[in-house]
Every structure is written in C-alpha cells, then in structure tokens.
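Quarterly update from the structural biology core.
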Amino acid sequence: MLLLTSRKCVLPLLGIVGLLPAQEASPGIPIDHQLTITKCGGCHQRDANGMMRRLSYIRTTPEVWEEAIKRMVRLNGLSLKPEEARPILKYLSANNGLAPEEAKPIFWEAEHRMFRDQSDKIPADALQHTCNYCHTIGRVLGQRRTKDDYEKLITMHLGLFPGSENTLRPRRPSGPRPEQPVVYSAPTGGNPAVVGAPPPAVPVRADGKTPAEAAVEYLSSAQPLLTPEWAAWKAAMKAPKLEGKWMLIGYQQGRGRVFGTVTVEPGASPDEFVTRTELEYANSRKTLTRTGKSIVYTGYSWRGRSTGPKGTSSDPGSEPAEWREALMVSRDGNSLEGRFFWGGYQEFGIDARLTRIGTQPMVAGGSAFSLLSPSTTELRIYGANLPADVKPADFDLGSGISVKRIISKTPSVVTAEVQVDAKLTPGVRDISINRITAERAFAVYDKLAYLKVTPDANMARLGGVVAPKQFAQFEAIGWSAGADGKPNTVDDVPVGPVAARWGIEEFLATPDDDDAKFVGAMNDLGLFTPNIEGPNPERRKQSNNFPTNNWGDVWISATYDSPGGNALKARSYLVVTIPVYVRYDQPEVGQ
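Predicted structure, tokenized:
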C-alpha cells in the first residue's frame, strides 16, 4: 500500500494542489487531526501554526469534502481505506464545515431535489455565467473560502478542464475585427430587412474583468471563510442526543400523506445511529418497515441509508430497496426536517419532519386533505400517546364539524366518524384533541372551482438500456374558490390531490410533431414512465430518414369529473430528454 507523500503524489499540474507560493496571511482554520495530517500532509503542507495548504482555507458540506477525498484518490495517488476515509470526512465536516444558518438555504442540494440549478436561486450574474454552467448552484453556495483559495479553485478548473478557459478567462481577440458582411432576411409575407451584427464571440464586461475575476470578487465577499455564524456554531457544537422514538409526518408526491415512527438507537460512535422506520400511507393504508444507519455531521447534518424487504410492486416510486436520508437536526435536538429519496436520479422522495415523542399526547394530522360540506365520513387521526379513553367530545375540528362516534383507537391512530354541516365557509382547519393541536390539518370546501397540475413543468430522461430512467411524477390538485366565490383570488383554498384521468398531448413545436407517440406513458397515479433510450427504428423525423431517439416535449393533461358534472382540466409541460451518461462518481466508492 502506498502512503500519500509529496514524492508519490501524482500532480496533474503544478499549482493545482498548493505547490504555489505560501498561502496568504489571512486567518485560516488549524488542522489538528493526526490521521488527516498523515494522509493529506504529503501534498498539503502544514506550518507551525497548524495551517495546511488548501484544507485550512476551505469550509464546505460533507458531500463536497467527500468528493474532494475521492478526487485525491482518483487523480493524485492517495491510498486510503474506507475505515480511514470515514474519520477524515467526519473531522473535516466538523472542523471545516458550515453553520446551520449557512447550510439551510442550500440544503435542497443535500436532499437531491430536482431542478437544483434554478435561476431564481442564483444570487449573482457572476455565478450564472461561470460556476452554474457546469455545477448546480447549491454546490457553489455550499462553500466558504478565502479569496486566495477561490483563485486557486479557478486555476484547478483551468488545469483539469481546459475547455473551461472559454468561460472563465476567455481570450479577447486582438487587432481590428473583420468587417461583417451585410445579411438580409426576408420573412414570408414581409419586406427584406438587414440582420443585426452578431454579438462578439467573447463576452466583454463593462468593467473589463474576466468572468472568473467577477466570480472570485463576488464569492470572496459574499462567502468568506470566517463568519460570525460559523464562530458561534463552532463554540456551541456538540454530539446530538437523538436516541428515542420520533413521530414522523411526511408527504410523497403522487401518494399523499405519510405518518409513522422512527426509533433511533446509538451506533458505533456518538455521532452514529441505528434506525427503525415504520410508515403508513394515509390514502392507501399501505405500510413500510425499514432499518438503517445514519451519521450526523457537524452536530446537525443527518445523512442516512435504510433498507426494507424486497417490494412486490413494479412501480419504481413504491417500496424502494434502499433510500437515502438528508435531514437537519434542530438546535434544541427535538426535531429533524428533510427528505428521504431514491431512484436513478433521486427523483422519488418523501418530505419528512420528525418530532421527538415524549410522554404527552401528540397529534400529527388526518388522513383526509379536505372534507366536503355537507358530508359524513370516516377520518383517521394520527399521532402518538393518544388517550386510551378519548371521547367524541375531546375533539375540536372547528365550528360546524363534529365527531359523532369513535370507530377504533390505538395509541397512534384514532378513527372517527365526522359530520360536516352544510354551507360552511371554505377554509383550512386544525385538528385538536384536548387542546393538543395539529395546525392546518385539512380543508373544508363546498365544490371544486378549478384544477392545477403540479409541478407546472417537469423533466424526464429516457433510459432502461444503458442508463437508468428518470421518471416524472405529477399531481392534480383541486381548488375551491374560497369565501368570495371567485376563482384565482387570494382566498382560494387547495383541496388536495384528486383522482384524475391522465393523458399525453402534443406540444406542437415542429411540422408533423409526433413526440406524444414516442416519449413514454402515464399511469393512473400521475406517474410518467419514459421510453427507452437510443434510436427507435419506428420513429423517423421529417428532417431526415434515419431512426430518431424517443425524446421530445409534450403536455401532460389531467381531467377530473367533479360531482356536479363539470369536467375540470389542467396540464403541465414536460421535456423528455436523453440520459446523463457521464458520471463523476464511482458507484463502488459511493457506498
């Protein structure tokens, strides 16, 4: 086995990993973990003050530190066993991590939510035209560095990815530009017109700075290495005390509300835990039981994996063999919030909130999103430590709604017969049992006014042969017009998902567009399954006579036949594209 030393470390370029003039005199973070020093110190030299080149001048998330360690193994000849990598990752995440206030705005990156590079999350144009070209913006905003280290990061990109020079430090042409020929355009039925001169090949900023210089200037100011938030959290950080039983409230798109419990037991070290999760989907009464392990990094950042029995369903959104977990632990240690996720692109997931179960009764919520006025129905109310002697009079669901009788009861679920009076004002109600309340637990409505499909735009990827498929889940959400009786106003009330009829309609973009025939299929739960990747001999586009892939863009339509006889319809835009064939991680190392 080779140890990492300055002689045996394979450097792709001088200067990439710190073989430059000494780090700037600005404050850094001392490294005092002996294993980290032993494994990393061959290239990242450590001075008398404990400062190590590069390492002392970076703070980031566990995921970015993990990728950095893997890159050292792949590119720089570092020899590292898994039992050595784990404590190094823990140490760097605790010693050079992010404060909860810094991590929360970009925690969706750790949760692997879709559309993780949306432009509305990019705080500066300097990042839109540099970092965000290749990275999700969450990856960028989850790092804190000195200005000198941001500049080294630019140098590393230029060395490892030469094509990035066109984006980061484009070369401006010298000398006079050649005269552009005059180009005319004559649209059908219009007069010829001179086409404007093309934009310069290299974007030129008014201040004369390169895109890389603008990005470094912004990041070093907005995301410095040392912040008051990190100083405060570093002083308060401690190993979380999470042992015990937790009430889980969740939601999975396409399957609705999820209730259950998570039992947390101590693991091999104070920041490791063993879990047992028991869930019930309120709509279908389907149950899942899973066991797993987790690590809490930096005193608050939960990462876990859990497994369950092999599922019998062919639906990829149901009964996953393994799912991953990313949760944030609250400051007081009594709640966690985040996402469980799975799938080839982590497109399936449960938004979850865990609350510590004590000795007092707790109400989680109800099985129904909404109750019709008037109606009489069964409502299951989930919670923990629910009273064994609970009576109808103990419930308070708001004026005009009463519990007529208790059908069944356990410490975690009470099933009640609920009567809803006529002519109730549409709105959102709470569920209370003896003054223990679940806020905004269900809606009351008299009729549906319109339908919305969520999300209003989505993306799927072909696959199933070489690469995995990326599925797309949709929901049809019914809306009541609210107290004013006018649809699309501020008092409208979401009634929740309805059982709609789903279809695929053509989004006309080219002559003889036929995407709807080839991109994939919808099921009755709103799940879009894309077609396989690769050329399809049955599909030949107008522009050529060769087989074409099954990509395209379509409308996803939902139709709901309301009880009043009116058909409500809505739709969402879907792009079906090719798989992601390039993977920057090694699956065998990612475990």
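The chain has a mean pLDDT of 88.
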